[in-house]
Amino acid sequence: MDVLKGIKVEQVLDHLRISRSNLELRFKAEMNKTIHQVIHQQKMARAISLLKYSDISIQEIADVCGYPSLQYFYSVFKKEQKQTPKEFRYFWKKE
Known about the structure:
Elements: H1 9-16, H2 20-31, H3 35-53, H4 58-64, H5 70-81, H6 85-94
């Protein structure tokens, strides 16, 4: 089971049986980040690792990491990494 695929704050709320605002306040106080930020960081770290150390397709990486579409994955990745996943993989493997 892939714990990152499709994880939503609502699932955490249901499991813990607390309100969204209560959870977000407690989480931010403890982690100094929002739940969404932590989930995003974990998904991005997994995607980067797969781009570096595997040969699976970028579409499959987007799917495995829980991004709703390849286009969205490219957009989020480029915004954060300043290059596309394809460029990242090419330059990483080149080194």
